[in-house]
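Deliverable D5.2: sample structural annotation.
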Amino acid sequence: MNVLLLSMPDSFEHMPTVAVRMPNGALCSLAGNLDAHHQVAVADLILVQQSVRETVERLMREHAPDVVGLSVMTFQRKTSLRIVELVRSLHPGVRIVVGGYDPSLAAKAYMADGSGVDCVVRGEGEITFRELLRAMESGQGFGNILGLSYRTEDGWRENPARPVHSLEGDEIRMPERDARVLAGYTMMGRQVDVVETSRGCTFDCGFCSIIEMRGRNFHTYAFDRVLADIRDARDHGARAIFIVDDNISLNIKRFEALCRAIIDAGLNDIAYTVQAMTSPIAMHGDTLAPLMREAGFRYVFLGIENILEDDLQFLKAAAKNEFRQNGQATGNASLRAIEFLHQNKMYVVGGLIVGNPDDTRESIKANLEFASKYVDWPYIQHPTPYPGTPMTKEFRARNLIMIDRMEEYDGTTAVVATRHLQPEEIEYERWRAERWMKTRHIPAVISHEPLFVLRNWWKMLSFTFRGSSIKSVLGLESDRAVFQRYRDIRSAERVYL
């Protein structure tokens, strides 16, 4: 069968296209886990944001797919349904399958009459999608395929959930990067790829969709497989790798051993980025941080979440941000973790969440000032009521959800109010501070990627300060006017076809 797998063009707005465009690792994993006789094409539409319709039309002509699969996050839902409509108009008989976080947690959104969707893969997709294609080929029914919802003449049927995979053995095979049919993945001028070494998390943060999608668990791949995956990414041109694990820092001894394995294998000539909790870095940074740097880690996304204890309690993120001595919590771990990373010449991407139910303007500013002072690159988000999360239930119970347009659920658009502020005011405070934080990282980028900055500095600055004008630069126009123009630009950016 001919299979076309698409990720959506909608992107988080923290970074300009020219600086960061990551591949969707799930699609290549799906491609690598189908039976070998299938012809599979993977297309990350984030690479063609200005020509989505034309690209989909071309891919449909060139690959004549029997099955089209879409990977979708919540803020991409509207775009995905438009792409389904386009695909169906081009090839009425094609079978359309959706999967990813949003279809897994809000399957009914894809089951409406006229949606054009035939099947929803819930949870991990490799085995479910493999079994689905086998059933399609053989003409068998879909009733025994775990993790699948599917349309019948009598309406939709939902099979039982598929248990999460232990990642042991070789049932889940390596990604198939040769299936990609578009190019342009980049991170600060380096070709970038993604690698997965583990799945899952055992914490229960109220804002996170991972627990709702797969439960509280943590499973790991063997190092031989991980190193082979890194080599394959490097052989395909990657000089930067984002390790996409949900929470690699759950097992620090394993993380340290992975760093040693990367060094011993000679794979430390790659610039690695990873996301981690503050507490383990703070507790083990004296040994872990030097190993990370030697292994090639350059950027660390730290889940700081918030510096105020009350907000951490609401986010259910206090435990993972505690610094502990002699078994007792003795304070927030963020500063200590940042210090270890900076001492070892790594850069901190600071993940914070502002706009929680009891936040005031002053508490939001306190977090923004912390980010401005201590992190190298801000990744500041607003709490977003993703389907099924505990946070969503609480916001709904307190009548604080002000916006229900899913395309705005991208983390940097405020869609919920606090007891003291409306969403627009929350977003304004973040936007006004964050623009200037980002400029602070320019010297570091110049030192590591001077040619990239020389070629692209204007594109990066114009993205960061979009909405500004000559009048605003000269002080003849207020920040409020610039902010409104920025919001109008952002709204237009969300329309891809």
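Annotation notes: Residues 2-158 form a domain with the Rossmann fold fold (CATH 3.40.50.2300). The CA atoms of residues 443 and 450 lie 9 Å apart.
The annotation will be released with the project's public dataset once the embargo ends.
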